[in-house]
Design goal:
This protein is mainly alpha-helical. Helix content is 73%, strand content 0%. It has helices spanning 3-11, 16-37, 40-57, 66-85, 93-102, 115-130, 133-143, 149-156, 160-180. Helix 1 packs across helix 2 (16-37), helix 3 crosses helix 4 and helix 8 packs across helix 9 (160-180). The radius of gyration is 18 Å and the shape is globular. It starts with a helix and ends in a 5-residue tail after the last helix. Residues 108-115 have low confidence and may be disordered.
Length: 185
């Protein structure tokens, strides 16, 4: 079923809307949640919470890309759960990812600075569009889907050191790009 048809089911408040969403994007949701949480039970809970959140927000929201909308919701819910679960722990894979990106992306913003978030997001999106497809995929799968370097290397038939190097160079270029865009790091 096409995304537009699924969205129309949500707008009609049809019972089959969640079932169609699950059929089309359930595997993606589980994958994103599991990559972040490393727990099947927590991933399933986040997946189910995602469906509830989509039900609650569509309508009034009419997402341009249902896949991106669902991915963002499951990612945010999973990160919230991870933060809750690991508040006192350090040295986890989430911390490692944040430390990798901390050199080129500004820290979390306060409410006063929240409007600058849109500028950062637009700048990062513009930067990603300049990358070749394989580098963009590696970057998104590492920092959005939170896949391990080893997993990416295996998936794309590369050496882990090669993936790490490409990501390092991509982050360095992102930092330069953001500075040129006027984003303070």
């Amino acid at each position: 079923m096409e995304d537009s048809q699924i969205i129309e089911l949500f707008f009609a408040r049809a019972e089959g809307a969640v079932a169609e969403l699950t059929r089309k994007y359930g595997r993606l949701c589980r994958s994103i949640a599991y990559n972040i949480l490393s727990s099947r039970q927590d991933a399933e809970e986040c997946e189910n919470d995602t469906y509830l959140r989509v039900w609650d927000t569509v309508p009034p929201v009419r997402p341009e890309s249902l896949r991106a909308y669902v991915s963002r919701i499951v990612r945010n819910l999973s990160l919230d759960r991870l933060r809750y679960r690991l508040r006192q722990k350090r040295g986890n894979s989430y911390d490692i990812l944040l430390s990798e990106l901390s050199e080129c992306i500004p820290d979390e913003r306060t409410d006063v600075e929240a409007s600058a978030d849109d500028t950062v997001i637009r700048s990062i999106e513009a930067y990603l569009r300049t990358l070749d497809e394989s580098t963009r995929i590696l970057f998104v799968r590492r920092y959005f889907h939170m896949e391990s370097v080893e997993s990416l290397a295996k998936r794309y038939g590369l050496k882990a050191s090669s993936v790490s190097t490409r990501l390092l160079r991509t982050r360095a270029r992102l930092r330069i790009w953001l500075e040129q865009e006027g984003v303070s790091i």
